[in-house]
Design a protein that fits this description.
Immunoglobulin-like; 5-stranded antiparallel beta sheet; mainly beta; 4-stranded antiparallel beta sheet; single chain; 123 residues
Length: 123
């Protein structure tokens, strides 16, 4: 999952094989809860974008081994503080982007490779 800056925004890219899943991206209030256990998950930031994909998985269905990173954090001068996977259960893959503050965002879909990019404007 690439993460980086572009102009006046931070961009987080979720890449898929075999096509694009359905998705929703929305602001949520803490506490951030894992899916499906409902345990509280700590995520750096003051505002939180929940990114939910369905049908999608972040593990190999035969071995159960993770096929994605589960957490990313870095020291950039952008708005995204942390990206953390909070769920991978029954075809639903859920991530949270911890942001320094609430900001405008847009979602861009790509088809070669299949990807969903979440672009968050820097203040």
């Amino acid at each position: 999952m690439p993460v980086g800056g572009r102009g006046g925004a931070d961009v987080v890219v979720f890449q898929f094989t075999g096509g694009l899943p359905g998705f929703t991206v929305e602001y949520v209030e803490p506490p951030i809860l894992s899916d499906p256990a409902g345990q509280t998950i700590e995520v750096d930031g003051n505002a939180f974008l929940k990114v939910r994909f369905q049908p999608a998985v972040g593990h190999n269905l035969n071995t159960g081994k993770d096929t994605t990173l589960t957490e990313l954090s870095w020291d950039l001068a952008g708005i995204v503080a942390e990206v953390k996977r909070i769920g991978d259960f029954e075809g639903v893959l859920t991530w949270v982007l911890g942001l320094d503050e609430e900001a405008d965002f847009r979602v861009i879909t790509l088809e070669d490779p299949f990807a969903v990019a979440v672009e968050v404007a820097r203040p």
